[in-house]
Amino acid sequence: MNNEQEKQQISLVDEKGNEELYDVLFTFESDDYGKSYILVYPAGKADDEEVNIEAYALPAGDDPMDPQGGDLQLIETDEEWEMVESVLNTLLNTDEDSDSEE
């Protein structure tokens, strides 16, 4: 599988005011929660390197890829985390299945 497509990136500012660049894994919307979600990981990591994936919520209608920036929110409920993990696991399992078919 050739993965040379250009990755989308966003900058996040941590609690100390440091700006860090992240690659966007994917975004999705949830009708159940009326929000969009974005999953990111630190930029500059090799494809085979283990990374810590971070997830954030946005109010419905906010675009995380907007250059002005969306209002990223921490995911606070266990129910939302379970839903996000389920979507991520589905994505990862789908990717593994397509990789093994090549």
TrEMBL record:
Pfam families in the record: DUF1292
Q: Which NCBIfam families match?
A: PRK13678.1-4
UniProt source species: Apilactobacillus apinorum
According to the lineage, what is the superkingdom?
A: Bacteria
| Alphabetized PANTHER family for the sequence | UPF0473 PROTEIN CBO2561/CLC_2432, UPF0473 PROTEIN CBO2561_CLC_2432
The regions listed as transmembrane in this protein's record are none
Q: Which InterPro entries match?
A: UPF0473
Family under the similarity heading: Belongs to the UPF0473 family.
Name listed for the protein in its UniProt record? UPF0473 protein AP20H10_03980
